Amino acid sequence: MSAAVGPTRDGGPEEHIRRVRLPADRRTPAAARAVVRSVLAEANLDGLLNEALLLTTELSTNAVEHARTELDIEVSADSSGLTVTVSDFASGPVDELTVGVRNVATDITEVAERGRGLLLVDHFASRWGTTYLPSGKGVWFRLERPGPQPARPDDFAPPTGRSDGRHASVPSAGAMSALMQISPDPYAEDPLPDFATSLLTRVAEMVGAAGGMVRLDRGDGHGPQALARYGRQPRPGNDLLRVPLAVHRPYAGELELDAAPTAYARPLAVLTAERLSLHLENDRLRRADVRRQAWLTFLAEASELLAQSLDVELTMALVPQLVVPRLGQWCAVHTTDEWGRLRLAAASHADESMLPQLHATLREAGPDSVQARLREASRNGTQTPLGAPMEGFAVPLIARGQRLGTLAVGRHQRHRHDPDEIAVLEDVARRAALAIENARIHAERRRVAQTLQQSLLPPVLPVVDGIGFAAEYVPTGGDAEVGGDFYDVVPMPDDRWLVVIGDVSGKGVQAAAVTGLVRDVIRVLAGDGKPLPEVLSRLNETLVERGAGRYCTLALAAVGPGEDGQLDVGLHLAGHDRPVLVRAAGGPATFVGTGGTALGLLDAITSPTLDIALDPGDCLVFYTDGVTERRRGRELFGTGRLRDAAAPLAGYSADVVAARLRATAINFSVEAPRDDIAILVLRNDAV
Known about the structure:
Heat Shock Protein 90, Beta-Lactamase, 4 domains, 16 helices, disordered N terminus
């Protein structure tokens, strides 16, 4: 290897030389140390071992990290000392590394890798320099054998005189190595205080400081806190070394030593601050990651809670409970009415005794009031700060392009919201707005469904002398869809009444349209006095043509007065469940009628007619499959339970029979009904 710009060697018999090429690998520094150790042992230069190994590690590590090429390690020893040259094969100049006072505001990664190696080389080496070749570049250092040596002009000078008489010697290689080997305990829950204390103690002893302190402000509202202390507290009147820690916001801090500003004191303080800053930055990133994970969990839980509520008022009341106190001291939700005015929907405060004052402040009017700022946030659709006395900010509630109102949040007394918290609050506002909009849409759908369902059912049943009518209807629980169950009582031209109960397949708007079609066709044909078989036949034709593939089961009963106070009933079933006949005289209840063909499936249908005479007190109970198919786990309510429940109701009025059967079916299961429940009771009320 050529060394045109480097140490001179005579190549005599007393010289021990080793040249090794090593890969750019993390194991290279260890291999380089092994080569140096073997040469020192051959040359009987064991007194140089600590310094040589320390400087070899620094140069080889720096070359591996920056050059990322193979390395040539040349070790030469003679009777007077040792020379080590580390060369790489990367083009470009050797990194320019400043020895002495450094700018710690430099990027933390750069600070860690640049400055330490050549600071140590400059301190311990007798001579050092660089080599430049066409194939690459290198750095060499020379260590002289211990013993009387001529004084070097750049040796560290002893400390200047001080009023307290303290004096510190030049740090040894062992002390420097011990300083660089201090590391945090990987198994400690919070290793930073012990790590900072160890670093501070070591550097204070090396520079002869009477005291020292590491202050750290994590930006959590508690201000600067003492992370580590050594000796007496630094006194402002004494010479103080202050080195800021190179950490990113919101962290800030400094290392302070009560020591004389010697030639090596400040570089060692800077080096210590840089090492500590690296681990503090790791701590900041770790804490930020933990906080982000906590915020993600919080947002997931908030979304789940908001999604579970389809009630508008409950949803708006839930939002402040989610925000306070985790994200703010207080929170208020305002909604916009149809005229664009803001209305307070819900509010919460960490201190409940402050709620009246919060409400009063939110109601105040004026150009600089909270209300004015809220209107600005709602109008502009942007985040708006709130001034005193309720400091915080307002976020617009926007969902699907609609401005629903504002979410106002007051900051905690001890600290302001950091960027992560603001981002989380904006996300909460988006999710809250979407939940409120979904609840509003669901409420509107429910109102539409209820209105449409009510239009398909008679508002009241007719009051007829000697005939009792009663009905119970329970829509599907928690569903905003219109059901296909319906019932009706229609007057006929011959002083008879037509009792109708049916079930159209499916749910929703299409099922409601078919239900309305069936109901209207029956009313028109029955009002014209058409016979019931013809009514069913023409209704079947209509559903086949216009039913959109839906079918309908139907039960029709023409009711009129008979002889001796009886009621004559002509029963027609078109695929519908048979009604239950309950006799006033007692005895078991029975199913009556013969099943026919459901409407809308076939071109031709059959519907046998059954004539029934109802004595005074007798009743017929009509129902839909929502009653018999009510579930309790895998068990169905069934027709048998319905019949058994109806039998004890003999002699009761139609209203009582309908209400009791409804309660029996509902109480069979704790679950909400999966299908609409319709019950229609016809009773002979003749005295």
